[in-house]
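Whiteboard transcription, Tuesday session. T.W. wrote the C-alpha cells on the left side:
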C-alpha cells in the first residue's frame, strides 16, 4: 500500500492510496521424478491452482520453449512438458514455476541398447580385390556378429572382423565368386 498526501484548497489534508494485490499460485500436484531409456520420450505433469497462468518450465536451469523435441501444454489447471527422443546427457533437474509456486523433479536417463547409426549398403568389387564392409553403431563397446545369409562369419586368414570405435568392419582380403551373397551385421537390438 502506498499513501500519497494531497492538499485541498481548504487546508484539509486528503490521503489517497493505491492497493496492490499480489497474486499467488499453489502447486496442487507436484512433479514426479522420471527414469527413461535414452531416445525415448518422457512427460512431466503438474497441477496448479491458477488456470490462466502459463508458468515456466526449466531443464537443468535453462528455460524451455516449444521445439520439435520439447512440447509444452496447458489443459485447465494441468501443465505438461514432453521431452522427445531424450539423449543420455539430458539427466538432471526439471522444474516448473508459476507466480510464487515452484515444483521440481529429477530426470534420469539410462543408457539404451546399441543401434546402427550407419547401416550396410550394397558393394561391388572386382574378383581378387579387397572388400571392406562398414557399419556404425551408437556405442563404441557394442558386440556384433557378422553373417553371410544365415551363417555366422568368423575371422580366418582371408576374413578380418574389426572394431574401430563405433565402426564395425568385415574385411575380405581377396574376394572370389564364393563370397557373393547377402551379408549382415547383427547387434541383437537393431
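and on the right, the sequence the group agreed on:
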Amino acid at each position: 500500500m502506498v499513501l500519497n498526501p494531497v492538499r485541498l484548497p481548504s487546508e484539509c489534508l486528503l490521503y489517497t492510496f493505491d492497493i496492490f494485490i499480489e497474486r499467488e499460485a499453489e502447486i496442487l500436484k507436484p512433479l514426479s521424478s522420471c527414469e527413461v531409456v535414452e531416445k525415448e520420450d518422457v512427460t512431466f505433469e503438474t497441477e496448479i491452482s491458477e488456470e490462466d497462468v502459463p508458468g515456466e518450465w526449466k531443464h537443468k536451469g535453462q528455460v524451455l520453449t516449444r521445439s520439435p523435441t520439447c512440447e509444452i501444454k496447458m489443459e485447465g489447471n494441468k501443465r505438461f512438458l514432453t521431452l522427445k527422443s531424450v539423449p543420455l546427457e539430458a539427466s538432471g533437474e526439471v522444474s516448473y514455476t508459476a507466480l510464487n509456486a515452484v515444483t521440481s523433479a529429477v530426470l534420469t536417463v539410462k543408457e539404451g541398447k546399441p543401434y546402427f547409426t550407419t547401416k550396410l549398403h550394397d558393394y561391388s568389387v572386382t574378383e581378387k580385390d579387397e572388400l571392406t564392409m562398414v557399419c556404425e553403431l551408437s556405442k563404441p563397446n557394442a558386440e556384433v556378429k557378422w553373417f553371410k545369409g544365415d551363417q555366422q562369419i568368423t575371422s580366418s586368414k582371408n576374413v578380418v572382423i574389426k572394431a574401430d570405435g563405433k565402426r564395425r568392419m568385415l574385411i575380405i582380403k581377396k574376394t572370389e565368386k564364393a563370397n557373393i551373397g547377402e551379408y549382415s551385421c547383427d547387434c541383437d537390438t537393431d
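Someone added at the bottom: The mean pLDDT is 90.
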